[in-house]
Design goal:
This protein has about 475 residues and is of the alpha/beta class. It folds into two domains: about 325 residues, no CATH class; about 120 residues. About 60% of the residues lie in helices and about 5% in strands. The strands form three sheets. A five-stranded mixed β-sheet has the order 5-4-7-9-8, sandwiched between helices. The chain has a two-stranded antiparallel ribbon with strand order 1-2. A two-stranded antiparallel ribbon has the order 3-6. Strand 8 and strand 9 form a beta hairpin. The N terminus is likely disordered.
């Protein structure tokens, strides 16, 4: 069974199980699962668009969401279900909260909001960053503005605003409760990076400026592209889209001060700014620059570009239609560049490696983090891989140190307590083999494959003895 490890605590998410019931190939199941994720993202966004009354701006944004306009967005939205599910959840919760004002069955809607929020929170800190903190900040700013513009609190605390704030507070609170369940209960099942154990770095201007790199990549900027080429032109246009989106935010802020934005648009504006500010700050203080950690804010940034234009006075009808279509065309160009990149159409190296291991009867072994999951996936779960830390920036794999990120504690316990029986394999890439690995010797080399070298040991204890130089 192919499972996608998506949640922050590493809980398997069976996104492809339905595909495996329909197709024999795991690759076909993955394509089918990816299509389902795309459909889910579009459906959840269109629901949010309708509830928020976005009109044509929502339609244009749905077109953009359907296109893999950058490597970052394609990976996060289409290929990595761990982010796709939470993105859908954010869209649905935005629709539930922002549509609460006009809803007829508010009790049922509040109940659904609470259930989804609690469930999302159990996925770890991701929903806190994606949803709970930004929506809390946005509604706090909206409440502040309402109080500032009214002499009496009773005037500011009117029914439409009150029900929206109650829904947002309920959702944020239950998301936090779900996160506590994750930290106190689910942490006993999996090892993963926990923010309550992550130290803060000293704030540096370079770390904050580095966030621009991640945002530019999100919009489709590709480093090392030749300037006079399709990739170069697309990269320059990506920077233009990034600048236009930031300009749209400034224009919407001016309209908000002038009282020209409705409550829904103001909350979306505050949500976007809060999401970006939170993500950039957390990244800078933890020495990251991955834009996927504040993906909802970036997508809302694009949405506000269309919202801003829809609210712009334009008497020329052809121009009014042409501008959003031109913006969509830029994202279509970016998507075309992405799709034209070389893709693997033949059997992938790790598929060959999985076939070799299974044909020779090896179903338990070791590999570094990014090589372990593909073996399990390619074997439809028949191969259990005890993953070691990624070899790109550390050499713990030389000592067979087990990975403490997104790995079942049962696997760690099985290795450390000696419960793994029979022969085991170790798969090392060609680059990893060059690093003077003590257990990677010719005597135990069983195969040299495109995916790397396979070393076979009669038992886990023999493997660890070799790693310690005791063999």
């Amino acid at each position: 069974m192919v499972l996608l490890l998506g949640a922050a605590h590493g809980q398997p998410v069976p996104l492809y199980q339905l595909g495996l019931l329909l197709f024999d190939s795991w690759h076909s199941a993955r394509v089918f699962g990816t299509a389902l994720m795309l459909a889910g993202i579009l459906a959840s966004f269109l629901y949010f668009s309708r509830e928020a009354g976005l009109g044509r701006a929502g339609v244009y944004m749905a077109v953009v969401l359907a296109m893999p306009f950058s490597d970052v967005y394609a990976y996060v939205a289409f290929l990595n279900g761990g982010y796709s599910v939470y993105l859908m959840l954010v869209f649905v919760l935005l629709g539930l909260v922002l549509g609460m004002e006009k809803a007829r069955h508010r009790g049922i809607r509040l109940l659904l909001t609470g259930i989804l929020s609690l469930w999302g929170g159990t996925g770890g800190v991701r929903m806190m960053l994606f949803w709970a903190v930004p929506i809390s900040a946005a509604c706090t700013l909206e409440a502040f503005e309402a109080l500032r513009q009214n002499k009496r609190m009773a005037q500011a605390w009117q029914q439409p605003l009150r029900i929206t704030l109650i829904a947002a507070a309920l959702s944020a609170g239950l998301t936090a409760a779900g996160y506590l369940i994750n930290a106190r209960v689910l942490s006993g099942l999996y090892d993963y990076v926990r923010y309550d154990q992550t130290g803060l770095s000293m704030p540096q201007s370079s770390l904050f400026f580095a966030q621009l790199t991640g945002i530019a990549e999100f919009f489709g900027y590709r480093a090392s592209s030749r300037m006079i080429s399709s990739r170069g032109v697309a990269s320059l246009l990506a920077l233009c889209m990034m600048g236009l989106s930031l300009y749209a935010v400034s224009r919407l802020l001016a309209r908000s001060r002038a009282g020209r934005l409705c409550r829904t648009q103001r909350i979306l504006l505050y949500f976007t700014i809060s999401s970006l500010a939170l993500g950039i700050t957390v990244n800078a203080l933890t020495e990251n620059y991955f834009a996927r950690y504040y993906l909802p804010g970036l997508l809302m940034l694009v949405l506000l570009l269309f919202v801003c234009w829809e609210g712009t006075v334009c008497l020329c009808a052809p121009l009014r239609r042409a501008v959003p279509l031109a913006l969509c065309a830029v994202f279509a160009l970016e998507a075309g560049i992405y799709l034209r990149q070389e893709k693997t159409t033949q059997t992938a190296p790790y598929e060959d490696a999985a076939d070799w291991l299974l044909s020779n009867g090896y179903t338990r072994g070791f590999a570094t983090f990014w090589n372990g999951a593909p073996l399990t996936e390619a074997s439809d779960g028949a191969i259990t891989v005890y993953t070691m830390p990624d070899s790109y920036w550390q050499d713990d794999y030389k000592h067979l140190t087990l990975n403490r990120f997104l790995q079942e504690k049962a696997n760690i316990e099985a290795v450390e307590s000696g419960k793994v029986e029979g022969p085991v394999f170790v798969l090392l890439t060609a680059q990893e083999c060059l690093q003077d690995v003590p257990y990677a010797d010719e005597a135990h080399l069983a195969a040299q494959l495109d995916a790397g070298n396979v070393y076979i040991y009669e038992s886990v204890s023999a493997l660890y003895a070799a790693a310690a130089g005791e063999e």
